[in-house]
Amino acid sequence: MLNKNTLVFWGDTLPAASARYKLYCLILALLYAGILASFPMDIFMDRENYLTFAEFSIVVAARHAADGLLTALMNEPVWLGLNIILSSVFSPETTVRILIGLPAFTVAYLVLRFNKKYFFFLILVLLMPQVIKNHIIHLRQGVAISIFLYAWFCQRPLLKMFLFGIAPFVHSSFFFVLFILIVSNVLSTLRFAPDLKIVSFSMLGVAVGGTVFSLAAILGARQAESESYVQYDVSGLGFIFWVFVLLIFLMQGKSFLRNNSFVIGTLMFYVSCYFLLPVSGRIFESTIVLLFLASISLTRWRKVAFYMSLMFYTVLLWLIKSQLPLMGYGIREL
Length: 334
Prior knowledge:
Layout: H1 19-38, H2 47-66, H3 69-73, H4 77-87, H5 92-113, H6 119-127, H7 129-132, H8 139-153, H9 157-166, H10 173-189, H11 194-219, H12 236-250, H13 254-259, H14 261-272, H15 280-285, H16 288-294, H17 300-321
């Protein structure tokens, strides 16, 4: 049974902080969320789809229910439910803005509260393309990330498990995330050595990468019909960078690997199925905030190497995005 003594295997705790620092975090989180939620609705990709969800989620949910309980469960019913509840009170546009603002505020506040000594780095984390895009174009994933992150730091066992449990029903990538989390905890409980954990996560990534869409088709998940045919950017740039990050983490030592088993697991899963699973990046991005937070524990040259390489990679990504409408988030002309 999960209790306060075993919570460390299922998350982390926020450190104590002064009332003034909490107020600073609150104000900045509100500002971050307010700016993102106030952007014009008609200039970003997929906003029309989210407006449609807000207006017709009850129709979509009814159609999934008609196809059977399993199909309904595999097609993000909590996301649909949130849209149904909010749209019963607010307009579709206001509903979408709420689904941007509340998750953005939650993520920003938790990140800023994590370690006041790294306050400016944590602000940069919120501005990284892999993070901010979840509150601009990948809104469903942003909602799920905020739920998962709140659960990660939650100290109430039942609430923690409940929030972990509903995250996959907001965004399906969290079925993989929770699976990795469970595997990580099982391996830790069995006292697997770090090298055996790495091998296990690598084998898991290869196995999942080769079978996931066939399984999704059997279960009736919408991703089997859509995301398996979407061409994602799987160039070698991201692969090289994240393999380099993985090597830095591995060289930090056994204590770091033991304390960050889940983060290492998600990173190992990602690089092992990078070229096998086109949507592996979406799965990895669901937990990338935790990786950035874990990097704070790096020491000496490893921390310098990580931050320098991360800065180079992030600047390069933004330079590439600068050639696209609204840094890659805007509607592209046909």
